[in-house]
Amino acid sequence: MLNREFQEIYNNVELMMSEALTNSAHPYRTFSLASVDDKFPNLRTVVLRKFSFEKCFIDCHSDIRSPKVDELQKNDKFSALFYSNKEKIQLRFKGKVEIFHKNSFTKERWKEITPSSKRCYLGPYNPSDRLEKYHPNIPENVKFENPSEEESSMGYDNFVIIRCHFNELDYLKLKYSGHLRCKLVFEKKNINAFWLAP
Ligand SMILES: Cc1cc2nc3c(=O)[nH]c(=O)nc-3n(C[C@H](O)[C@H](O)[C@H](O)COP(=O)(O)O)c2cc1C
Question: Which CATH architecture fits 4-125+134-195?
Answer without folding.
Answer: Roll (2.30)
